[in-house]
Amino acid sequence: MADYPKNVVQVPTFNLFREQDAGKLPVLDVRNLGIDFGGLTAVDSFNITIGPTEIAGLIGPNGAGKTTIFNLLTGVYQPTRGSVLVNGIDIKGMPVHKVNKLGIARTFQNIRLFSEMTALDNVKVGMHNEIKCSFLSSLLRLPGYYHAEAAANLKAMELLEFMGLADVADQKAGSLPYGVQRRLEIVRALATNPSIILLDEPAAGMNPSETAELMHQIRRIRDTFHIAIFLIEHDMNLVMNVCETIAVVNYGKIICKGTPEQVRQNPAVIEAYLGKEDND
Amino acid sequence: MKKLLKNKTFLANSRIYLTVIVAFLVMFSLSNAGILSSSWKGYLVPICAYISLAVSLNLLVGICGELSLGHAGFMGIGAFSGIIFAALLKDVVVSDTLRLLLAMVGGGLLAGIVGFLIGIPVLRLRGDYLAIVTLAFGEIMKNIIGNLYAGVDENGFHMAITTSKMALGEGGKYIINGPMGATGVQKLATFPMGFLLVLFTLFVVLNLINSKEGRAIKAVRDNRIAAESVGINVTAFRMKAFVVSAFLAGMAGVLFGLNYSSITATKFNFNTSINILVFVVLGGMGNILGSVISATILYVLPEAMRSLEDYRMILYAVVLILVMLFTWSPKVKEIVSVISAKLSGIFKKKEVETNG
Ligand SMILES: Nc1ncnc2c1ncn2[C@@H]1O[C@H](COP(=O)(O)OP(=O)(O)OP(=O)(O)O)[C@@H](O)[C@H]1O
Ligand SMILES: [Mg+2]
Q1: Where are the domains of chain A?
Q2: CATH code of domain A1-103+194-280
Q3: Does residue B212 sit at the A interface (CB-CB below 8 Å)?
Q4: I want to staple B54 with a disulfide (CB 3.0 to 4.6 A). Which of A167, B205, B279, B345 is the partner?
Q5: Using CA positions, which residue lies closest to atom 26 of ligand 1?
Q6: Mean pLDDT across chain B
Q7: Would the ipTM clear 0.95, i.e. be above it?
Q8: At residue B354, does pLDDT exceed 70?
């Protein structure tokens, strides 16, 4: 089906959701992923494949293991079981910065911006590996430095503009309003040139109009950059409207996977969210 | 707006360079005119060395947020290797200035290499552990250098850590004589060269800060996890900063070592490391101009107060407190920012006038 790099033996069983993704290598292929913290099994038998231009959602009650899954996908935690393939390459044992270079970028549930730096510099840090300028030409201010910086400034401003943040470019990231910080984190993730971005509760702390704007922007990111998006969100309106596929986890296990429609009607999901029925 | 951003760092940097250049010109012409007393003249080169040491340590402590207590170790490596280089090159290179320059590059490189080797294990450590290991490194270096014998005879250059292995032939001459240190050193260091070292140090450190490497370093300090998540290899950047800092400290050490006719390894002990750290902390973490100023003042004061003998250290303590108040108190900071805003306002107005 898809052509994998030679060194990876694959059993391609996935069925990509979007038509234009059919037959393509999934950008994210997660198999049987699991992690134990001491005696606690935080994630178990987690499987998912995400196509190159898919918007997928991950939902579940508090403490279900969603953020832990993101940490596993980005190499922050090493899994106890299973494997994660980013663009067909196993991330096993890789340090976090190398996993990012494979094409996976993320935002954080509790915002982690470089708060002392300007918004523009935050984005330029995201572009770090893209800025081709040797250590020596930085130190000695050779012409290469000026070319690289000018190009970086231009692209960083474009990205900020894309998310409507151009006018806060020279403000300290830490001093920006909450909703703006969340969007800046997305821009910083985009700046790494990813093929998939993971958004951990991007709408948390946003007001309804900001959330509506965000929904629009998430689709626009996919349509402009042709990348996949995998997002965790408690705001059901956002998830049901934006995501094309949704995985529901509870106690670290997937209890249901499907389209928003399928998920909404699944009894296991209703039970996980509302508790065992009786009082409905 | 992009231009404005660029200008801000540009303005800040030019202020630093300008201050240093003006200070140099004033001191240089004073000393040439014979107004400066001989003891003051003696301070000029060490001041330059300590400024470079403080600025290079600030890169590590202020910018990277790594507490290093072994800066004098790198200084010592530079000083003694510089003395050896200068002695060996004596017949090869005639020009004193060129010899000093070569010795400085050599001493800097050696310190940089040692920094790299030390960095491999040390940079895996964080916080207090890094401080403890760099402290130990400084002491070990002091002891190694303190037991080092180096000399030349008709068979060429010899070097050993014990006397027994060190037998110079007829007419041989010690360059470094174990615990007695280096004696009969030709004083190559000059104030203009010290000034050039300061400029070079500022150039390297300021350029590093305002580049992609500098951004990465600051990002790592601000939020390590986020920095890794955008593809920054944290260990590699700590290493780069560590090596650059060691290299500059080594160069400053060469300048310092070649400023005295004799010098012993005990000069490069824990006290010196702490002194440099005090310059950095009081000048303000990450504040390069602050390091320049505090290194100058805090080096000169105790020296100038030697005649006061016992009261010297009390006065030094008072000065430390005053400097701390001045650089850290929000009130003073506010006053300074108001004044500088006013000044820049005048500056801008003038610019507009000249433009229009
Ligand atoms: N490093 C860790 N060590 C031990 N336990 C952990 C660790 N990280 C997460 N856990 C546990 O794993 C479980 C899942 O946590 P996780 O943060 O993934 O939940 P979540 O689904 O993101 O919840 P929320 O919706 O509140 O963000 C929790 O019980 C948590 O206490
Ligand atoms: Mg979470």
Answers
A1: 1-103+194-280, 115-191
A2: 3.40.50.300
A3: yes
A4: B279
A5: A62
A6: 85
A7: no
A8: no
